[in-house]
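Exam prep: given the inputs below (a chain plus zinc ion), describe the expected output before reading on.
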Amino acid sequence: MNIFQEVKERVTAKQVAERYGLKVERNGMACCPFHNDKHPSMKIDQNYYCFACGAKGDAVNYVAVLFGLSQFEAAKKIIEDFSLGIPIEQPKRKQNSGFKKIEKVPTKEERIQFVQKKIDGWARDAANVLLRYLRWMEFWKEFYKPETMEAEWHPLFAEALQNESKISYLVDLLMFGTGEEILNFSGMEGRR
Ligand SMILES: [Zn+2]
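Solution:
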């Protein structure tokens, strides 16, 4: 049995309505609080029904409409106000739909934007590092260039030759690649 069923088992619509200020006649009729009712048009007992405006429901529903709460909040309010001692369990599956007091869950778009921002920031940082490295290689390539064909290559010259095109490719990828390419790149780098 869920908390809605338990609450309805324990209190009637009439009990909660009276508790929150509705005056119910002996014959079980009351002035409907959901429309401007001059003469009692609401029948209220276990459930309620208004013959004038058609409002109807049970105890939980009554409180929800009266106070502008979700069904869950309404049930919780009744449990507290009537000291019913029913353990309150947060609904798990429907957290996103209509339970106002639950902490705001980011939408899918917000999560995507968040991840995109992270990737952009990371790619920018990575590109900057690589660009600085690229500058060094350009410098090394000139500075450590062997003077003759036969001379031994300075290791930094070798490194520059070896890495320059690869690094400039990676810089391009980071600055102009799609999110997917960048992610693949970051995964690839991580494995080394
Ligand atoms: Zn009504």
